[in-house]
Records
---
Amino acid sequence: MANAVSIKVLGTGCPNCRKVEAIAREAVAELGVDATVEKVTDIRAIMGYGIMSTPGLVVEGKVVSAGRIPSKAEVTSWITTALSAKQG
Amino acid sequence: MERTVLASRRPAALLASLAAAALAWLAAYIALPDLADYLTYGLLGLDRASHLGSSVGFFLYDVPKILLLLTAIVFAVGIVRSFFTPERTRRALGGKREGVGNVLAAMLGIVTPFCSCSAVPLFLGFVESGVPLGVTFSFLIAAPMINEVAVVLLFGMFGWRVAALYIGTGLLIAILAGFVIGRLHLERWVADWVYQIRMGQASLEETRLDWEGRVRYALQAVRDIVGRVWPYVVVGIAVGALIHGYVPEDFMAGIMGRSAWWSVPVAVVLGIPMYSNAAGVIPVVQALMEKGASLGTVLAFMMSVIALSLPEMIILRRVLKWQLIATFIGVVGSGIVLVGYLFNAVI
């Protein structure tokens, strides 16, 4: 699991945040990649990423989306990009 | 900050489908009164003069009408909102002095996408950027209160004048209340940790949405909002329809009519602990008005229900001490009472 892509869903628990988490998990499952999906609900931790509107999505430490529900296609492309960056 | 432009496919096809949708919408909207008429009195054979006929006719006309209006406006507002982000708003407001800042914040509150779950990160972000407390409050008052659902429903039920007045007075309350709160210098009632927190540097690439992205965002907003709100609209209109058909005229005049001077403050106080989205409240409001309740009182009630929402207070409790929340409720509540009296006097 050392090379797993780290994905974090930032949100305080509203329905939109849960949707983003579901989309992230689906994308990971479909890609079949090694990835961890973690939900961050602590407000101070969320603030640490510098976003102001939840839900937020962080892939490999980089904030890729904030304040909206990204499409599965977008999430898939972010994961793939992060994966090739790791391996390349 | 890098900018990624999402590739656009066939903009002409997009425009064509939007145009087709708009035409279909217009056709449905125009045909609606006759259709409702036919369904109630023709198909179901109800008597025009009867209570039941009156109620059903009201219901069958208003439900599709409101849903159509909602869909159109939520979509349009969604497109407008796709141009604004809280981050941009924060940058626009950072360092602005009060007065100007309050006005700008209230106006931005209308167009910036805002969900009450984001209230806390947003509050923190604003404070961190040096946005004055009062200006932040102007934003936090305007955003939930002047929502497109409320405006659409008011327009659909009372006409554009009332809808415009709602927006105008809502802005006024947001600006003045925020200004007053700012002038009171209540920073000591903000939770201590807020001023100590260090917000991380946003590494977010600002994706500039192309038109297809904006349409998708707006459609998502329609699915989200109309999908969530339509049961309330149906129930609200059903209740309204019953009142319309069965409650005698002027029944409410004594209780909520303008002659009872205490009706405005009482309506506002009643609205504070209640929380409902605009969709649920407005159809009931309309029916009450038909029965003699005065516009000022019911609008005050409605604003109180929407703007002073218990769930949002609970969320904000994390960053604000209760004294500030109480002050907030007091100042905004008073503003709403004044607006209620104003409406009663003028209309």
---
Amino acid sequence: MEQKILIPLYLNQVAPRFDLATEVSIVSMGDDGRSIEKRTVVLPRASAEQLCHLVLLEKIGTVVCGGIEDEYYQYLKWKNVKVLDSVIGSFKEIVKRLESGTLQSRDIIR
Amino acid sequence: MNTLQRTQIKGLFNSPIELPSLIDEIPLGIVVLDTQRRIMLINRTFEALSGFSMEDARGIHCSHILRTKLCMQKCPLKKMGSNSESISVESDMINKERELIPVLINLSPIKDTEGNLTGFLETVEDLRPLKEVDAKTQQAYGFRHIIGKSREMTRLFQTVPLVAQNDSAVLITGETGTGKDMLAEAIHQASNRAKGSFVKINCGALPETLLESELFGHQKGAFTGAVENKPGRFRLAHNGSLYLTEIGDLPLPLQVKLLTFLDDKVVYPLGSAKGFQADVRVIAATHRNLDLMVKERKFREDLMFRLNVVRLHLPPLREREDDIRLILDHFINIYATRFQKDINGLSKKALKILLDYPFPGNVRELRNIIEYAVNICPRGQMQFTHLPAYLSETKHYYDRLTPEVGESSEWTALFAESNSEHSGQKTWPSLEKDMIIEALVKSKGRRNKAADMLGWGRSTLWRKIKKYKIDA
């Protein structure tokens, strides 16, 4: 089944903070685990609430982010969204790890 | 990597000293960056504050580790040159534990002997203790984030500031949801160690082998997979407080190791013969009955004596009747503000349901109920329909205890006596006693039938009758 992954970005890296990101990438993964579509959404202003709303609106299955406040982490978990937080690395490397199914919370990709 | 660990300062003393050992002793987060703002060194205080270890952070751009508001908006270091003055700025950071921490950041350039810019020095001060002073003055009935005006809680509020001032070990007991974690943090924040780290570890959350390495640290090569030195929570809590929650779940072999630490205050990481003198205040908490565990030989008596220097007991909410209304209003205010709703308290019926409910999950359960109700209630007064359904479904035990009309046996008399005896205080034993009496009244003294009604075996009922001296 196709799965959507949202990654807040900052200068082509995973944004250090979920609540301050103004650019997100939405990656659609196919049945074989490979990315089939990538698109970028630019937000009018940084807001964790709006980002959570976007996650639900886009029916995102997984969020990959840097720092996230517990309040939003628990909310997304409650909404059955998997959150991989404290991830550091470039967008390209993150997608590679997602495709290989090896990305975990707190991963640092140098 | 190891060359950085061995970075030495020469010329300051007669013999060279290691830089990390010097900055680790400073109770302020310290981050050393190169000119590209990549992390070269962090001290132990910053490790504890951010949750990132030196190994994780080394070489990473500071914005990914520091994670302050400034990092993504306007980093002052972008414009900082060798001749720039230091900058102090207030911001907030999100650590690995997902806490938003207010911080004061001081940024300065580092220059070489010829005055060229070689890097930056950042100090990060945790402002939580300062911020909480304001909150404290606003709370008449409370201590830090804990509120209450019942006799038990008032006594506790008078004791805690005194207890906080010394370094004695503290043992906090209380049922789940009574606020043990909050009390432990309040003790730390009110103590002289408030500037140091408050390090928490759940003794029940990790398997024994992992817990040992987590608590005491390990030396590189101590076991397969130990590729780096790990400082351990005791070391991270140096000059601060270590909070051991669910101490009742600490495995027996580790109890011995903890006992040794409490005696000589030296931590020996796994695989290391060299000890580290840790100045740590130990605060432990459990929801278990440690006295019983000692009797059952599941918890070491000698460790119990060492931890039990100051024992603070948090009473369950059902024993804090005066506080329910206060806490209820407190949470209504908090959630109404957070969810931006115009809520005018509770209706009489909703209030009665809440005041009659025994709250087995204590303050945490009450908080969740109010959060739910504020979510559901659109505006105005919260009605009983806005409360979670299970509250209305749970009939109050006194209702269930009402004997049928015309039933006047010795059991009914016993029921009346028990009912009046416990009308003011509803503890679980008294509730259980009443349930047994009710069943016996309804079965007209037939124990087999009473046991069936309670869903127990006959022997369980017999044991409990004996325990509560109902037979007598």
